[in-house]
Model the fold of this input.
Amino acid sequence: MFNKINYKKHLLISLIIIFSLLYLYLFNKYDYIKSILYKSTNNSNNISSRLLYSSLNKIVSYNDMIIKTNENDTVKKVNKIINVEETKIDSKPIIYIYNTHDTESYTLPFISDYSITPNVKIASYILKDHLNDLNINSVVEKRTIKSYLNKNKLDYSYSYQASRNYIRDELKKNDYLILIDLHRDSATKKYTSYEKDNKKYARIMFVLGKNYSTYSDNEKFMNNLNDRINKNYKGLSRGVFIRKSSKYNQDLSKRAILIEVGGVDSTLEEINNTLYVFANVLNDYINEEIYGRK
Done:
């Protein structure tokens, strides 16, 4: 009887010690990983801290991440992702970036702890940031697709009608040279991952609709960008995928593109690396093909 009680006592003490050590290990490990992904910095104009994505050299103002709950909708909105040293551009914007499927998200652990969803909206702001570095002014659409659908009592299948409405609004304000509808592919890492010089990227794919009379202008534009990407990063672009029965609002501009950047398993770092390449390709195209600079 004594041995049985003694055994249970020792077993209980052992289990408590094991679970305590496991808890401490996981807690410290989690904080260590978070410390790599994020670094708090002081902001004299804002009591809220700013989170630094160390691997991307980006900062996100905590105040700019608004989680707004409406009666029929919960919207997570990131208003600003900027470089550590923000570039100021005085010229009018020439690129309009939007997301017809703005809830498409990527897989990335730990970010959810800050109520941040790594999605195509964040990818759009990363692209904007790289364009800023090249002195190219761009605009990212802040309005959500769902807010338009809810307001007009439409379902998800009318998403392109919603983005079309936003595009038309923007074209009234400014004569954009390029329209970019940024998406995330549903394909897995096997088809969307790319590596060069020990650096990982998310593969990009162009989607062209041909159900309008002037599609050849956009086809030429996409083929040009596709060739420029694959010239130095062969295979990074998956090419131009054609849909004859669709138009994806590309009839609104002769330089309107839909791009699938990465897939469900792509990390934010891979997305960032690809968008850096894409921004530089856009810069070269604009200088050479639009402005005639060599």
In short: Residues 1-37 form one domain. The chain has two domains: 1-37, 78-290. Residues 26-57, 59-87 have pLDDT under 50 and may be disordered.
